[in-house]
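Task card 7
Instruction: Convert sequence to structure tokens.
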Amino acid sequence: MNSRAYAVRDERSLAEVVAEIKDELKEFIQTRVTLLQSEFKDNIASLKQALPLAGIAVILLGTAYLLLTLALVAVVAVAFWGNPYAWFFALLIVGGVWLLFGVMMAFFAYNQFRSHSLVPKKTVEVLKADKMWLEREARSHV
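Output:
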């Protein structure tokens, strides 16, 4: 008799292997997407709490800025009191100082934005680790 006909098959078909790889890939992608979504949800939740407070702070700070600027212009105008252009010079001097400070702050803010990325760091690190793992697995099976 043919002993081959009664042998137990330990090998899987190509279709089974492909289906298993497809399922694992779906699970892998779903896990990474879930990680990315949870990271974005955490960021948005913290922003939702801080946004109203930031709006109130901007209004109060803007009002204080305008009042203090008017007071500073009045003080500088007193220095030029006898001159018919006293208010012009005061506004010019205070405006120039604010312009200088504004340019400096914009430069610092620009450098801060350049040094920080909006890309989710945890997700990118996990994806890099996954890439390295896949490369090791591919090398070990070749």
